[in-house]
Design a protein that fits this description.
By secondary structure, the protein is of the alpha/beta class. It is about 35% helix and about 20% strand.
Length: about 425
Amino acid sequence: MSFVKTIIQSRAVQLFTSGATKFLLYGGSRSGKSFIIIFSMIIIACKFPGSRHLVCRFRFNHVKNSIWLDTLKKVLKICFPLLEVHWNNVDYYITLPNGSEIWIGGLDDKERSEKILGMEFLTVFVNEASQISYEAFTTLLTRLAQKCEILNDKGEVIKTAKNLLFVDENPPSKKHWTYRIFVDHVEPETNVSLSYVDEYGCLKMNPMDNLSNISEEYLKLLDSLPERKRKRFMRGEFGDDSENALWTSDIINENRVREAPPFKRIVVAIDPAAKAKDGSDDTGIIVAGLGFNGHLYPLEDLTGKYTPTEWAKLAVSAYHRWKADRIIGEVNNGGDMIETILRTVEKNIPYKAVHATRDKTTRAEPVSALYEQGKAHHVGELLDLELEMTTWEGKIGEQSPNRIDALVWAATELIPDMIRQEIKRPKSYY
């Protein structure tokens, strides 16, 4: 099988050779972004013997499943069938015949990330950058420092490699650092215009650009998504804060903290999906803590499409990792199923069932008020949760906000008095 680039992938390769050194490929799901970046990194690795390259993502398991076990193998099989590489399945890197290496890593494993970030790389690929904080991104930039040269028979330098940064993502909010840097061309923390704007290039790639490699069924699935997700995963558009949402990016950002304080209590809240298929709702899983100041601290968002056994294992793992006090489960859809499944994973796990007696918007409003009062602080960046918070409007027929639901259950368990307080809200919410 010979590799034929799509038109948009050819444009991406042209961008990579344009003279810029930092690139963002953004757009819808399965549009060929990661494939063409891995392809280009292997080309560079082949050209410069002994060079080192990094593919990283927020969670190691995600980059392992999506890149190590999938995209990297596909690119090598389709585009470089005669290239013999050695796979190191302990430290997770491949070695090319010329001594070049391509590593994968996650930023959620401190010990592993410190090992990887102790090395220098010729190129770095930040996969699904919407999940990575600006602070983590700037740290990765410091590792883009390996110097590689090609010498002739006389030992003279005939070519010096450029250090290149590749970034891809399904676009999040326009408040995200990727949009601020690659589209607005400003430094996210200071709003000062970037120097050397010519070093930055970006390209939109959508599923419609990759029709030869995806099925009609998948396109139909994307087209059936709610408007908010269709905009992101099919049309590849950056999101705006909704005027009718209960939260704004500014309020979340103003109250954000980088380190977690000591806690009175920690809970893991679950809002289960009825099914685990592609078109079904996500299972919302949020970890949150109550500070000694009485403030709410969302700590981790583990929301995703899981089988019941998968979300139960995730919740129990989070319970132990955060030394939580109990797991909370919303039982309107799941009934006794949640407790039964959790106890198959760990028999004596502390668990409490909660029941929804009011609509989602009414339940969410007191939690929104905590943010307005400066009493809720995201620890680091919970970008998918924040995107849902700033775009969900609570309209009839709108897809269930599983992350918000889990957040609300966590907050209600940690600060039960807030739902009994009469909270004055801005007129814009009526």
